[in-house]
Amino acid sequence: MTQTPPSSPAGTRSVRVRPAPAQAGPPSGAGGGAAPWRALAIVLAGAFMAVLDTFIVLVAAPAIQADLHASDADVQLVLAGYQLTYAMALITGARLGDRFGRKRLFQAGMALFTLSSVACALAPDAAGLIAARLVQGLSAAAMFPQVFAMIQVLIPAAQRPKAFGVLGAVIGMATIAGQLLGGVLISADLFGSSWRPVFWVNVPVGLVTLLLAALFVPESRAPEARRLDLPGALVLTVALFLLVVPVVEGRSYGWPWWTWLSLAGSVLAFAGFVRVERGVGAAGGAPLVQLSLLRRRPFAAGLGLVVLAYAGINSFFLVLSLTLQDGLGRDPLGAGLVYTPLAVAFFTASLIAGRLARFGRRVLQLGALTGALGFAGTAVLAVHSGAALTAWELTPALALIGAGNGLLVTPLLNAVVSQVGPQQVGMASGLLSTGQQVGGAVGVALIGVLYYGALGGAAHHDVAAYGHALTAAVLFNLALAAAVSALLPLLPLLPDTGTRRGGSGDGS
After folding, report:
1. What is the pLDDT of residues 124-152, one digit of tens each?
2. H helices of 69-201, where?
3. pTM
4. Domain span at residue 310?
C-alpha cells in the first residue's frame, strides 16, 4: 500500500527526532531499516504490560479478596482504580510526551509502572493495593500514548498500516494473556504467594524494557509544543472522573443517586472544558485539546468508532470470563485456555489486516461483519444447547469474534491516527487512548446490567441460567458490531491509500 505522508514537508521538519547514541540509522521515520522496528518492538512491551494489567487482575480478584480479607467494594476499587487513573491521565501524558520527549515520558512511565507493580505485589492490605493500583494506572497513562506517537514519527508512512497491525495484535494478545497468564500463575501458587506473582511478573519485563529503551529508542518531541494547559488538564480530569467513576462503580452499588448526579456533573464539566480550551486558544496559548481536531469529521468519526469497538471488546471478555468460571465451572487456567482460539484468530487477523490496507474501508467492514457473525453464533449456541452448553462448543464462534476484532481494530487505529499531522499526533494519541478506556468502561457497565439482570439470583454452575445471561449480553455486542458497520461510511478512507480525503496534515 502507498500511503501519503500526513503533512507537508514543512510540517515534517517540525518534528525533531534525536537518535540515542547507541542507535544507528535514519531518524524519525525518514527511512526503512531495522532500527525503527527495533525501537517499536521495545515500546510495544510497555503497551502489552499496560493492557495486560487491566485483565490479569480480573482472574486474580477472588484470590486477592480471600488473602487480604477485602470487601466487595475493595475488590471493585482494585479492579477499577487502575482503569480510572489510566483514563483520566492519558491526554495529559500524551501532551507531556510532545513537550518533554516521548522517549523520556515512556521511560518515566515504565519506571513508575515497575515500582508500583512491586508495591502491588508487597501490599499488606487492601488499602495498600488500591493505592498502588492508582499509581500503576497513572504510569500506564504516561507510557501508552507514546506508542501511537512513536509509530507516527518513527515508521515510514507506507509501513504504518503494518505497524498498527502489530500494535493491534499486541493489544489483543495482552487481553487474552491476562486471562491465561493470570490463571497459570494463580494455579501454580509459587512459594505459597497466591495472587502476588501477577504483579511480580511485571518487574523483570519492566527492567529489561527500560534498559533496551535507553539504548535503542530515539527521542522525539514536537518543538512547537508549549507549556501544558494546566487549567484544561484540571477541568478535563474532573470531567473524566465524574464520568468514569459512576460508570465503573455504579452497577456494583445498585446505581445510587450519587452516580446519576456525577454523570450529570460530567456533562457540565465537559462543557466547562470546551469553554476553557476556547479561552486558552483565543489568548494565543496551547490548549490541551485543539477543538478544531474534534470538528474534523474523519477524526471525530474514527474516535467514535474506537469507543464503540472497545465497548464491545472489553464487555465481551468480562461476560465470557464470568460464564466460563462461574457458570461452566472452569478454573482460571481452564478458562484461559478456552480463549486460545480467539487469541490465535485475533493475532493472525491483525497481522493480515496490515497487508490488506489497500482495500481500505472494506477490511473494516469485513471485520465488523465477521465479529457480528461470531456474536450471533454464540447466542444461537447458548440458546440451542441450554443446560448442555460446554466451553469448547463455543470455539468456532470465538474464533470468528477474534478474527473480526483483528480485522476491525487494527486498520481502524491506523485510520484514526493518520487523520492528523506530526504536530497533533500526541494529542490525537491521547484522545484515542482515552476513547479506548472510556469505551471499555461504558461497555462493561452496560453489559453488566444486561448480564446480571438476566442471571438473576442463579447459583454458580447453573449452566442454563448462565447461558441465558450470556445470550442477553452477546446481543448487546451484536448491536455494537452492527452500529460500527453502519457508521463506518463516516470514515472516508480511500481504497488505494488508506488516508483521509482532503484536508491538511496539520489539522487545519
Report:
1. 999 999 999 999 999 999 999 899 888 88
2. 72-100, 102-122, 126-154, 160-188, 197-200
3. 0.76
4. 289-491
